[in-house]
Amino acid sequence: MTKLLVTGAAGQLGRAVLHHLLETSKVAAGDIIAASRDTAKLTDIASRGVETRRADFSDEAGLAAAFAGVDRVLIISTDELATPGGRLKQHKAAVAAAAKAGVKHILYTSMPNPDKSLVSFAPDHLGTEEAIKATGIPYTILRNAWYDDNYLLSMPHNLQSGTWYTATGDGKVANISRDDCARAAAAALAKPPAGNRTVTLTGPESLNAEEIAALVSKAAGKPLNVVQVNDEQLAGGMAAAGLPDFVVKMLVSADANIRAGNFDLVTGDYEALTGTKPQSLEAYLASQKTALAG
């Protein structure tokens, strides 16, 4: 019996990973452990025969106890973005706890090219990758491209106004859906690639803002005009809309990263892990017509 543990199990990605472990990878419920700060949010998962454990990334000793008897752990990056350095501190605690508990394989959800990325939280991912490698424990790093799902946060508003303000310039991005990332993570957790591997999970094509806007417009049945602005203008508009400073910095830095070409890569890693092709952005958006309508 090989015990597989998923951290952040109550979150969107964590829940999707658990779904794919059970339904796609066909792992027995008794071999899976779902871990979260709040196990009360996991009652539906527990009802399927999955063990649940409390895992607080701010409590290294508690994490070591949560990881006891675990063969492979998937460390899903946390949402601690408001406090500078807070996320990396949490991740390092989880990695140290995994080593202390004798975990035999660590998997981690990272991002493409964290070593040269302009995205504000890239150092968190790079630092975590380095901490994992320093343990000497076999690892699989899953570098997830920018989610298709992120467009659902801004596109309904953009469609209402008919305008998408962006600072991505001519840069391209190979978006992938969160669910596809979850399926790949489940496949890797159930059967890790041999040795130490770093894979980059992307969609099937890299698109610029004009091409993305055309797909959004087609799916929603509404026109969407792209207006290119500079970083300062983009930041000003977001601040005026009331977004927190750390969110403004994150979104502006993401656009800058796209503009610099650091998200412009398409790999076959998703298909290699899952045996299937990733969903296209066009297909994803077509499935989200209701959400795009706001």
Largest sheet: 7 strands, parallel
Q: How many runs of DSSP E, i.e. beta strands?
A: 9
Helix content range: 40-55%
Q: What structural class results from the helix and strand content?
A: alpha/beta
Q: What spatial order of strands do you see in the largest sheet?
A: 3-2-1-4-5-6-8
Chain-averaged pLDDT: 96
In terms of topology, how is this protein built?
Layout: E1 4-6, H1 12-23, E2 32-36, H2 43-46, E3 51-54, H3 60-66, E4 72-75, H4 86-101, E5 105-110, H5 122-135, E6 139-144, H6 151-161, E7 163-166, H7 178-190, E8 197-201, H8 209-220, E9 225-228, H9 231-240, H10 245-259, H11 269-274, H12 281-286, H13 289-292
Helix pairs in contact: 1-7, 3-4, 4-5, 9-10
Features:
Rossmann fold; seven-stranded parallel sheet; 13 helices; 44% helix
Walkthrough of the structure:
- This protein has 294 residues and is α/β, with parallel strands linked by helices.
- 44% of the residues lie in helices and 14% in strands.
- It has a domain at 4-144 and 177-203 and 266-278: NAD(P)-binding Rossmann-like Domain (Rossmann fold), CATH 3.40.50.720.
- The strands form two sheets. Strands 3-2-1-4-5-6-8 form a seven-stranded parallel beta sheet, with helices on both faces. A two-stranded parallel sheet has the order 7-9.
- Strand 4 (72-75), helix 4 and strand 5 form a beta-alpha-beta unit.
- It is globular and about 55 Å long.
